[in-house]
């Protein structure tokens, strides 16, 4: 258990010190490229011998970003800009922002005007990502990102290196899926510690993160499964990394046994499969992705996906962690709630915002949720 504690501390150190991680990589002579939510083709950046560095904003007071955004833009996009304007990402060579929601579209435009010294690389995804022209559009957008990266950084792209990077990302996907499942057997690992494992992935090269997660998996497997007196839940939403919120989960004896969080497991569901070229394979990967509010789906299959995950993992309920002003998630909530009701699964919506300091309302809702189970 002492080894496991050390490993969890390492994940915590990385997850809570992104700036230190960035400085480490820069000191090693590496270049880093910032990757905004929700899906950025990290494999391309990795294959060009640079560090893809996740930027999902931070819990903070927003001041500067209010000069660029109206109040109803989500705090993830606003805090990314706030940090950019404040120089927190100094040292990164470029910023890639996908166009997957209206907030991200406006983040890209505001970044160009508000942040000097870090050029924007827009990543335009098609709405209809599964049809042949959609896949062609994604591939053409990747080519545009590659061209910009080559011009800005001087690093060159080659398809063979991308193939190798995609293999590294596939291996990382596999360990992240495995750890998510395995943690269900070890309720002593808290919601905050679970979050550290997922969050730290954004600030490390994936081959390095894979090694750490693998070590943790091996150590956990040496231990017997723990007796479980916690209430198992599945979380859903864009981001659920606020320490105050996670400690409320822990104080109320809730155990996350699976998640449909964009910042967590949604990143790791689909692997890249072989195709004629590695770039085509990456475009196919995006086409195959599903069950996410920012990915167009008329059938809204995400609702059944969450219900099935909850049943499969033995969860008693679903916690929808709703980022305030996130319209893609708000549209999906009604459908998810109906699916949960039909399956007799408890489901509550907890509103979060990167500017929030007081989680009393969430605490009351979680206490009521617990009593109702
Ligand atoms: S939280 Fe929602 S609105 Fe904000 S960037 Fe993410 S998907 Fe877009």
From TrEMBL:
<protein>
    <submittedName>
        <fullName>2-hydroxyacyl-CoA dehydratase family protein</fullName>
    </submittedName>
</protein>
<keyword id="KW-0411">Iron-sulfur</keyword>
<keyword id="KW-0479">Metal-binding</keyword>
<dbReference type="GO" id="GO:0046872">
    <property type="term" value="F:metal ion binding"/>
</dbReference>
<comment type="similarity">
    <text>Belongs to the FldB/FldC dehydratase alpha/beta subunit family.</text>
</comment>
<dbReference type="InterPro" id="IPR010327">
    <property type="entry name" value="FldB/FldC_alpha/beta"/>
</dbReference>
<dbReference type="Pfam" id="PF06050">
    <property type="entry name" value="HGD-D"/>
</dbReference>
<dbReference type="GO" id="GO:0051536">
    <property type="term" value="F:iron-sulfur cluster binding"/>
</dbReference>
<dbReference type="GO" id="GO:0016836">
    <property type="term" value="F:hydro-lyase activity"/>
</dbReference>
<keyword id="KW-0408">Iron</keyword>
